[in-house]
Write a structure and sequence with these properties.
The radius of gyration is 22 Å and the shape is elongated. The longest helix is centred in the middle third of the chain and has 31 residues. The protein is mainly α and 133 residues long. It has one domain: Butyryl-CoA Dehydrogenase, subunit A, domain 3 (Up-down Bundle), CATH 1.20.140. About 5% of the residues have low confidence. The protein contains five helices and no strands.
Length: 133
Amino acid sequence: MSFSFISNETISEDFFPSGKLPLRKDLPDTFTWNLYAIFPDDSSWEESFKQLGEELKHLGTFSGRLFESPETLLEFLRTEEKTSEKMGKVYAFAVMKSHEDTSDAPYQAMSERAGSLYAAFGASLSFFRPEVL
């Protein structure tokens, strides 16, 4: 049995001939993710972020009411599903933008805000399991 190793120097020379890691802005688009497929711009993200805050309040109104009627339970489940999908997009966009350049303070702040909202989302649903069980 034999092993073949590639040194870090070989990889660096092949992919980064200058010896320096390129900045994201200098990479061809084919090597970057297109977050603007999720939101066309940062203001659209901000709008969804604010809407989610209101939607989380609405989710809380179902607490203690899930079994009032089948319609109420169905409305909750549909609302939770729609809110969860939107939350996923808001969170993914913010976190991935922050990972593009970890020295970019505005996107780091956006990621922190999204993380806080995600925690609030979980809290807004905390009544569900105890109520159903």
